[in-house]
């Protein structure tokens, strides 16, 4: 197969979304030859090593899939490695074109792994800047256009950010910019004349023209589709079917790669859904509001109560406000030691418990459309800190005279993959008094980080992507053509086209233009309430719709507070689950340490002191395990008391309100949350840790018993050895004393006999008998002493014999 064939997946001129191994090998071989020939711009060995890493898809995967665990910061490698590679490739025949197309292929592959464009955009800017510098010395028009096509990706990122923002008007403007840039590239490529003798360049020219032409067709379709959808959502378009068919023909006749073709089919399907719905009655919200609830839990390293944690955070927030600081980049407007609740929550039990807490009110956030006369949206923001632990960040937006697609735009602000508005500030901006913001999901991350920083002893627990949407409708109309008719019953909302964004969970990304029009509403559940007139409460996953067209606003607000309470439960239970996991991991680590100590105690038979030390450490370790288990039991019991209070009638002021609160909790899946926590507690305490503790205790008892038996045996052996030594010593002493006695006796009697036989001239009979008595007395005394010593030794032997251990 011809490796330079532009229709071949093995072409050295890489297209997007195809295998680019041939291009990577061509670049590597060419740059290696430069080094072998010793050319001036050849890469050094370390630079070639950088190139190998940079051109590998594995490196890009490590950035986005391993969340920053790469060996080096991406910016450092890109800024160090790309410029010399670009300069060296520029010296190869059409090398700049091969490299630019390959980098485009590589960045597109990495793009599929992330919504974050920052690192991708950095790679493009660094490479294109190096190429621009190289062109000042040696210009190649074909390679220049290749680098322009790589730079075109920056405009593609902007279109995606606009799609992720969910607003057709800015999709139109972003795609129009992309169309203009692609048209310039296509025109310039087609104007180039390539010598037929330059086969390699001619084939590169063909690939470049095909890629640029496809990009032009792609973004022209996106732009025209967004315009058509917007026109149909704002009024009837008579030739919509014909225009939609022209878009379909364009897609069918352009040789898109499979990925691009599938994306365009998704766009056209959504546009077709709008098209076939033009004759249906449409929903218009006259008055209402939307709340986004981002729940989170907070736990303290010192096991403080939720009341103590709330007080600590309130004091820290007050200090920061006094210092002029912000939370998450948003000014602190006020700190109140109460929740913004009506009197329906004034219930309390015999222990004085109630749904209480504090509120940190933040400055308003504005969503602006630069260059457009649309009134900025105002987002009111507050942080709710609860004594029960169900904390939440809450954003509230009013709906007034909103068509269905504008409601969809508002609700779309909460989607986790909302586009980074800092990429498109001239199209859409989100601002607080402290500066520009990327979007609500990014702001939530910053707020949670800052809330955790208010108290260094606190840890914030929040499930990524966990949020709730509450849409309240107080007045609505049915639109047919140019006629609007007020709805009189909330139930009519379910029959009017355009209700999809009110009661469908948000998507995880930009599926298509106006993808909300294709939401499946078969899974909607409705619930009956006591306190509203002709109301509808509908729920689906994390979205709740509350509509009552004939009830006073204060009654609707009471039920809204129930919905906020229900959605905030997710953060409380997340915090509890995290704490259970923390305790379980602590105990598991302690048990692993106990296992190591047991092994060490069993493997040191020669040293009693070492064994005793290991046993002592093991005893202390098990005490720590038991203390940790006790803390876990205390934590669980405290939470069970909170659950009992949440489910008790006393949390609100009347039994009928309790019925409505139960309904709201069921609609939000509270039973599933509670059962999940109970199951986790049972799994940790009932089936996992307790058997492990029993095993460790049993092995400890065995280790203690073995150590005690060993110590008794060693003591007996030691005593027996000592007794044998004493007996041997005493036998030696006895023999010595007997010998000495015999010597004394022999010497004494022999001396006496010699004295008596020899006599003395001056002694008389009396002196002889005195001397005889003295010698006999000395002999008797020596015998008495020897007898006493012998008896003492025997008593000592009897007293030091082995004793029976107490039974």
C-alpha termini separation: 92 Å
Q: How many DSSP-defined strands?
A: 14
What is the makeup of the main sheet? 14 strands, mixed
Average pLDDT confidence is 85
Supply Rg: 45 Å
Tell me the strand percentage band.
Answer: 5-15%
Structural class: alpha+beta
Structure description:
The protein is α+β, with helices and mostly antiparallel strands and 807 residues long. The protein has 20 helices and 14 strands. Strand 13 (535-540) and strand 14 form a beta hairpin. The radius of gyration is 45 Å and the shape is flat. 37% of the residues are buried. The model is unreliable at 1-9 and 802-807 (pLDDT under 50).
Task: Please write out the topology.
Elements lengths: L20 H17 L7 H10 L2 H9 L8 H16 L5 H17 L6 H18 L5 H11 L1 H13 L2 H24 L7 H36 L5 H14 L4 H19 L5 E19 L5 H17 L3 E2 L2 E7 L20 E12 L8 E10 L4 E13 H8 L17 E4 L2 E3 L2 H15 L3 E4 L6 E13 L2 E4 L38 E3 L7 E6 L2 E6 L4 H50 L5 H39 L8 H13 L2 H89 L6 H35 L8
Parallel strand pairs: 10-14
Antiparallel strand pairs: 1-6, 1-9, 1-10, 2-3, 3-4, 4-5, 4-7, 5-6, 7-8, 10-11, 12-13, 13-14
Helix pairs in contact: 1-5, 2-4, 4-6, 5-6, 5-7, 6-7, 7-9, 7-10, 8-9, 9-10, 10-11, 10-12, 11-12, 16-17, 16-18, 16-19, 17-19, 19-20
Notable features of this structure?
single chain, 807 residues, 14-stranded mixed β-sheet
Can you summarize this structure?
The chain is α+β, with helices and mostly antiparallel strands and 807 residues long. The chain has helices spanning 21-37, 45-54, 57-65, 74-89, 95-111, 118-135, 141-151, 153-165, 168-191, 199-234, 240-253, 258-276, 306-322, 404-411, 440-454, 553-602, 608-646, 655-667, 670-758, 765-799; strands at residues 282-300, 326-327, 330-336, 357-368, 377-386, 391-403, 429-432, 435-437, 458-461, 468-480, 483-486, 525-527, 535-540, 543-548.
